[in-house]
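Batch manifest, entry 17 of 40.
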Amino acid sequence: MNIAGFLLFLTIFAISIQEMQFKYPELLWALFLLLIPIIIHLFQLRRFKKTPFTNVKFLKKVVVESRRSKALKKWLLLFTRLALLAAIVLAFAQPFFAKKEALKQKEAVIYLDDSFSMQMKSEGTSLLQNAVQQLIQSVPKSQKFTLFTNTRTFRNTQIEDLQNDLLALAYSGKQLSLDDIYLKAHSLFSSDGTTEKNLIVVSDFQETMYSGEVDSLGPINRHFVELRPQTMENIAIDSVFFRSFNDDHLNLTVSLSSTTEIESTPVSLYNDQVLTAKSSAKFNTDKKGEVSFTIPASEVFKGTLEITDNGLSYDNRLYFNIDEKEKIKVLEIGPKNDSFLHRIYTEDEFELTAVTLNALNYGDIEKQHLVVLNELPGIPSPLTASLKAFIEDGGHLAIIPAGDADVNSYNLLTSSFGAAFGEVNRGRKNITHISFEHPLFRNVFEKTISNFQYPTSSVHYKLRSKASAALAFQDNEPFLVAGEGFYLFASPLSADYSNFQNAPLIVPTFYNIGTNSLKIPQLYYVLGRPAHIDVPINLTQDGVLKVEKENYELIPLQELLTHRVSMTFNDELMEDGIYGITDGKQIIGHLSFNHDRNESDLGYLNVGDIVGVNHSTSLPSLFQSMENDNRVTELWKWFAILALILLMVEILIQKLFK
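Output type: structure tokens
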């Protein structure tokens, strides 16, 4: 019975040890010392002392009681000493309870969404401010982590060092997709495969962040903290454009959108911060609204459109400007002075000069933005040399071949930009294919047209060029090839050979050829999108143009050409507004930039549908959960206390069983 109880004690003790983890497991070998008290108690040497007794009956009674008392005392001391020795050994081995992950070294990378959609309110503060406060309160002060936003990165820092930067964090017009976030986070983690890596994404998770397929991060744990605004109400100014214009007035139309059904909202128009008009935009059942303003056509206008609503603030304002427009200079060289181009290149936007080859002043070519060779029988060598220099200097050239053209003279010119006219074919063919995504026709058509009145041509040359075809025949042979600074037609366009002059396509085709030759500033540009602007100015070789706004100044990428400077913008500008183009201290023009409106539509992801992520709605609950998972319950103190208790129990046993 005693042996069975001892075996039960050992079994329970062994099971308890299996569930524990030890800081110094090698000390558990000392548990073999438990054999020492067992051996001592089971094989101890008994010493007998002779005592004379006269009362044999009393002696028998004493012997029986003494044996029982000694047996009980022996087993109590055995169990107590075994437990005492085991408690001491376990206390020095420092046992604890913890999950496997709690023992690994941790790495944490936090993505904090600071895009404009985080301006929405929750509990009286913006989502971004709410997220910052939660971070400051929840992240353990001693924890090292890396944090990145849409534009900034803070590596291997602590929350106390980062607190001021977080509180001063401004909203960004850039929003990273989940793919971008994963790629960025992956680059910020170490290559150590033994550490536990946690990516914490704090965002409102707009639909625009998710493309449908997200790359796996492998062993990296993903935690999504989803912040939601209390209301989904937002009104945005989407765009402004010219509805109509004449010599005296311009009619501007402003487009708005709302996330909820409303009847109207007031819109204010400012010119250089001075209120010039105010009107109410009416909304339809599709939650789209419009309002129109009329402004003078003859003055420089630095416009700001403004509304007031309780949603996002970044889309309550839209900037635009109208400067004195530079007319695009077009030179037509052909056998006749009178042509169809006069109907397209009107005097309000273009300065068209039509001359015959004999009347051409070669010095006028370099002053043009676009030169059109209209059905010349051949191209003389002096003209070829002038046009090559013109194209190299950024000019644009359009060639319409004659029905009986000297192809060799044409190719002496076109070979300089990798194109050639081939053999001539006669026979009527339809022009059936429009490349709607070609830069020449992009944003011209509201929808793809597959069935229209096809223009025809009876004479057509085979064009050889690596440039893409903007228009093509029914057999996919190119009718119009558009490359970098040149446009080649495969057919003459006069009525004897083609009816293209009477087709609706002729207007957008030649109008866009003309407007592409000088990239006049638009009403406004969208920040983050590539923009190319030509500024008509004669700069010195060392001259440089700048764009300025208040205390900000930028020298954009620019190319000095004859009579103009070509400027290119990518993502250098971060702030919306009206910028001045300066030559030295003189303002020679203006450019307006606005933020993309893609965050104004408050559509959100269902984060619960994304596979492989831990979903949370607040940072405190997430960090509390992570702390619980990483908690280590140390037991050595309890085993030390148990050892002291067992020592006292042994002393009591010694005193009680004398």
